[in-house]
């Protein structure tokens, strides 16, 4: 019984240190994305195409569960001025910020133009 604990730890370490770890991670990510896409397309959780109890099934289910509480922000509906990779939810707040900045710029130009016109009138009045 004393040899059982180190043996199980060694097996666990070997599983994580295997040379195909990157491949397993990429496969897990692919299945996670497929699960999220399935949820966003309206499929039910029991439509998992992977064998029950497998890592692929767990990844697909995790993606589906995550997508259940998070909207798909990769929608193709975009405003005309937005670049193609902008999320739909980002457009309105940025538009407001830019409008405020533009209003401040126009106001500054108006004040500057008014002061310049007043100065020109004064210099013309001094010459006459």
Mean pLDDT: 77
* Overall spatial form: rod-shaped
Low-confidence blocks of residues: none
Question: What order do the SSEs take from the amino end to the carboxyl end, as H and E?
Answer: HHHH
Task: Give Rg in angstroms.
Answer: 31 Å
Largest sheet: none
Description:
8% of the residues are buried. Among the domains are: 23-70, no CATH class; 90-128. The longest helix has 37 residues, at 91-127. By secondary structure, it is mainly α. 66% of the residues lie in helices and 0% in strands.
Please write out the topology:
Layout: H1 4-16, H2 21-40, H3 55-68, H4 91-127
Provide key terms for this protein.
single chain; mainly alpha; 128 residues; 4 helices
Could you give a quick summary of the protein structure above?
By secondary structure, this protein is mainly α. The protein has helices spanning 4-16, 21-40, 55-68, 91-127.
């Amino acid at each position: 019984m004393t040899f059982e604990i180190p043996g199980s730890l060694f097996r666990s370490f070997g599983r994580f240190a295997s040379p195909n770890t990157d491949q397993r991670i990429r496969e897990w990510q692919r299945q996670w994305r497929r699960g999220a896409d399935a949820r966003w397309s309206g499929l039910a959780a029991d439509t998992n195409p992977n064998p029950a109890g497998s890592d692929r099934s767990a990844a697909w289910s995790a993606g589906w569960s995550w997508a259940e509480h998070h909207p798909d922000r990769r929608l193709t509906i975009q405003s005309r001025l937005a670049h193609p990779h902008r999320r739909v939810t980002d457009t309105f707040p940025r538009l407001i910020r830019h409008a405020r900045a533009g209003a401040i710029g126009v106001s500054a130009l108006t004040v500057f133009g008014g002061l310049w016109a007043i100065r020109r009138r004064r210099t013309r009045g001094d010459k006459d």
